[in-house]
Amino acid sequence: MQRVLAVIFLLAVFFHQSQAQCNSTNCVAPACRCMSTSTPGNLSPANTPQLVFLSFDGAVTTTNYDNYTYLLNNRMNPNGCPIGMTFFIYQEYNDFTLTHSLYHKRQEIATHSMSHRTPQELWASKSANEWVDEIGGMKDALAKFANIPKAPIRGSRAPFLQTSGDQTFSAMKTLNMFYDSSLPTTDFVDPPVWPYTLDQGFQHDCLIPPCPSNKFPGIWTVPVITLENDGTRCNTVEACPQPKTLEETYQFLKRNFERHYFSSKAPFGVYLNNNGWFQSANFRLEGYKKFLDYLSSKDDVYIVPLGRGLDWMKDPKPLSQVANFFNCLPLTQTSCQPVSCFYDGEASAIGPRIMKSCVPCPDVYPWTGNPLGIA
Q: What is the annotated signal peptide range for this record (predicted)?
């Protein structure tokens, strides 16, 4: 017991020192940002857009694609451009043809590992090289089989929000990733903190150890701001006490949003694991949609992918100029010739699998260590 208390004390001292050592002298905007509740660019709250980050973790399938497009359909930001979500994708059961479609609807495609293996504890001890295989491998697979550019795949979220601390972020540095969104906080939620860079190290509370202890210049962390429902704090929507009606779902999301909107205006995130929250109770999908309708009634709220939100933080424009900043991104169309690929026996290391691809089928089922499926 004394040893546990000692570890907790040392962690507390470490994070306090990390916060204290980051300042405007050693962390100069826009490339660097300390953890703070202050708005970027010293903008007043009234002149700051309220950013909303909506993300979904897991494989894109026919069922959840229908729900995603139902939510996205004809939904615009105040400047008339489509809203944007972020999809953290893993390999198993992913439909790369639908991933291609989401990308061409101007949605952000990001990585959620190649294998997403269980149990959670496996990820706490992974080496940097293993993380390169997981994050980099998924990035390669997404670019190849969804036939989309690799450069816009800039973000990552660890399976189960479980990193292995420095090993994970060393791999991200090797891969030149832009941001991570895996590390939750309960200490800095009221008012909520803004995303920050790891130039001067990790600065918020470590809820799922190990957390990074070294500095990783240029990598942004988007803290997973815990939500609250019925007096319970939770890292993800699914972990909270579950709403029992459409109206409860709407009020749950609206109440947590307003904690951001009426205080620091830090980005509000709704992070869901795939489609299960909607599938288990369709009224939650309708409550979520009602919440999006509520957001659409506000002329200072922009629903954007995480990566574009961070781009704005690096070049913060006042509300009067935000419409131009979050313009309708031009996209170079890429082809998708859908094919269904079937694997079993020695062609798949994890048993019989089907994969839908935009390009000809690879020799073997793509997996960790062989993300392009080359025999």
A: 1-20
Q: Is 223 left (phi over 0), alpha (psi -120 to 50) or beta?
A: beta
Q: Is the pLDDT of residue 16 over 70?
A: no
CB 155 within 8 A of CB 107: no
- Integer CA distances (angstroms), 190 to 36, 79, 91, 124, 227, in order: 12, 29, 36, 28, 11
Tokens of 305: 């992918």
Tokens 């979500």 sit at which residue?
A: 85
Six token digits for residue 122: 């496996």
Give the integer Cα–Cα distance in Å for 291 and 297.
Answer: 10
Say if CB 220 and CB 310 are below 8 A apart. Answer: yes
Alpha helices in the chain (DSSP H): 2-21, 62-72, 96-103, 121-124, 128-131, 137-145, 166-174, 246-261, 276-279, 282-296, 306-314, 319-325
Q: What share of the chain is helix, strand, coil (3-state, %, to 5)?
A: 35, 15, 45
Token pair in block for residue 291? 């919440």
Note whether 172 and 188 are within 8 A (CB): no
pTM of the model: 0.94
Question: Residue 161 has what DSSP assignment?
Answer: G
SS3 119: coil
Rg (CA), the chain: 20
| DSSP secondary structure, 34-53, as one string | -S-SSPGGG--GGGS-EEEE
Residues 149-163: tens digit of each pLDDT: 999 999 999 999 999
**Higher pLDDT among residues 373 and 3, named by residue:** 373
- Report whether 180 contacts 222 (CB < 8 A): yes
C-alpha 277/C-alpha 274 separation (Å) is 8
SS3 of 235, please?
coil
pLDDT tens, residue by residue, 184-242 = 999 999 999 999 999 999 999 999 999 999 999 999 999 999 999 999 999 899 999 99
Per DSSP, helices labelled H in 186-272 are 246-261
